[in-house]
Fold this sequence. Notes:
- It is found in: Cytoplasm.
- This protein is of the alpha/beta class.
- 25% of the residues lie in helices and 26% in strands.
Amino acid sequence: xxxxxxxxxxxxxxxxxxxxxxxxxxxxxxxxxxxxxxxxxxxxxxxxxxxxxxxxxxxxxxxxxxxxxxxxxxxxxxxxxxxxxxxxxxxxxxxxxxxxxxxxxxxxxxxxxxxxxxxxxxxxxxxxxxxxxxxxxxxxxxxxxxxxxxxxxxxxxxxxxxxxxxxxxxxxxxxxxxxxxxxxxxxxxxxxxxxxxxxxxxxxxxxxxxxxxxxxxxxxxxxxxxxxxxxxxxxxxxxxxxxxxxxxxxxxxxxxxxxxxxxxxxxxxxxxxxxxxxxxxxxxxxx
Length: 287
């Protein structure tokens, strides 16, 4: 039989096939080859008894993301907040770079808009100006359900972002199921992660959404060579510099640095690019 892994807990995989759930284990061959089935994987499995079985084959993946570790996604809803927890531009730019590198569409959801002032909200619109879709929401008083469903329709989407940014409340507004909601630590103003496992919810036909654990930070191991990073910043004009291999740092007649001087490229984005460039370079040199 063929189905999709919609949930995993330890060594148990819940596989949906023909609107029925099967509780499966993976054959030992996966462990021997150091291959781990992921939520989102399309798999072949054998049924051993009613509602139980063994996964025998993982079908080809469209893509894979490491944090959270999921497969076959069409788009990511990346949650951020201006306040409570406070905005972290470096993490945003690093995450967007990762999405660009693995070629996954990303929509930025600015949650808790009621806590931010107009100046803050206008500032974050710099991402909209470089082509990212932004949606500002208040999960409790102004939830744009119809707009969200239109974005999700016909796709498999993943919800991601740091702990405490409103992902669980967002999902509870969409899914007919109570999602455990955490609190914010008053000391750190960071959320307590409530999602302990990855799970897919089906909203309507061909419309699925992942519930994934939050993260506070993640490594830059999604990219091996710092010279590839420039292609992950979509506002960089990589074809108009004097040198084709320009990294937009110290090279002469660099179009990106010229755009930076004219404020076409935002200083925060460029500075985060430089920091990421050095991080990737140091990581590569320590291999």
